[in-house]
Specification:
Blueprint (H helix, E strand, L loop, with lengths): L1 H15 L15 E9 L7 E7 L14 E6 L5 E9 L1 E10 L17 E4 L12 H4 L1 E3 L3 E7 L5 H14 L1
Parallel strand pairs: 1-8
Antiparallel strand pairs: 1-4, 2-3, 2-5, 5-6, 5-7
Length: 170
Amino acid sequence: MQNFFYIILIFSFVSCAPLPHGEESQQLPEGSGQLILDISGLRNSDGEIFLSLYSGKNGFPNDPDVAVVNRHQDIVDQKCLIEIDNLPYGEYAVSLLHDENRDGKMDSSMLGIPKEGFGFSGNPKTKMGPPDYDDVRFLLLVPEKRLEIVVQYETVGRERQRIMQERKAR
């Protein structure tokens, strides 16, 4: 009888133990879908889009080696369409680069200001550095999901250049 009491006590402690961090009781449905990314806002059709799809914070947004999908896609008429098939249902985030010179990296000024276009799922406005994964993540839980990503370009230098041109015109 005493052994039975200890077994019940042990089971009650185990059943009340919290789940490890990140393993909430929410279960994602089984299945996979197609992710369609409609990329616009490109300033030209030079180069290619280099896209990385991440399934967690690890490596986002600058380490394509840990991305679950990496794609290079040509640009046509300043637009790009990327389709990713058979993607397991889950949480993801997109980071992309308009690699105008096809050198495989983000070109930037000596101050670190990007010279090439970039974009993220959710289209956040960036001012100082890339957004956090939590700010651009999305769920794929349907057979087909379409996202539009508008490419951004460095605006500080262009705005300064516009102001200087206006001053010269006066």
